[in-house]
Amino acid sequence: MSRRRSQDVRHVDWLRLIDVSGPFLSLTVLGEAFPQGLDADDPAAARLLREGYEEWTANSALRRPDPAIHRAWVLLMLRDVLGYEDGPLAEGAGIPESAVAELPEHHVTLRPDFAVLRAGPAPVMLVQVHPAGAPLERAVLPQVDDVRKACHDLLAY
After folding, report:
1. What pTM, to 2 d.p., does this model score?
2. CA–CA distance, 57 with 60 (Å, rounded to integer)
């Protein structure tokens, strides 16, 4: 089998794994975007991803999902699937202040949960984690405690 033909077969196999809609994902587009072909399947990585996903979906279906399992799922995606290990992946105090935005006029501070760092002053990717099932197509409302604090701060003026 020719090299080009084997790449097409891998692209077709990959397309079978996803819900393809619109002109953005097609064999032609994949061939242009990945002329070298896609990486071969890694059964161990696929098993890890499948097990993590099953645990995450079971947790998400609970009345009170465990936030630690949601966080573990996000870390599995960032570290094991996308390959951002500790070092380039920062969280908490490791996130540079340049990635934090203070909006005093709105009584809010925007702080990512994770940041992917590279050489230079600015992170290359900021990650904000939302609860499972959060509607991401509209603005996320602040937590009740944040609203109470903002109201208290406004009344204190």
Report:
1. 0.64
2. 5
| CA pair distance 138, 17, nearest whole angstrom | 28
Euclidean distance between CA atoms 78 and 70, whole angstroms: 13
Vertex 10 angle, CA 8 and 16, to 5°: 105
pLDDT in tens, 63-87: 999 999 999 999 999 998 888 876 7
| Six-digit token string for 146 | 């944040």
3-state DSSP helix/strand/coil % of the chain, to nearest 5: 50, 10, 40
Sheet holding 125-127, edge to edge: 89-91, 114-116, 125-127
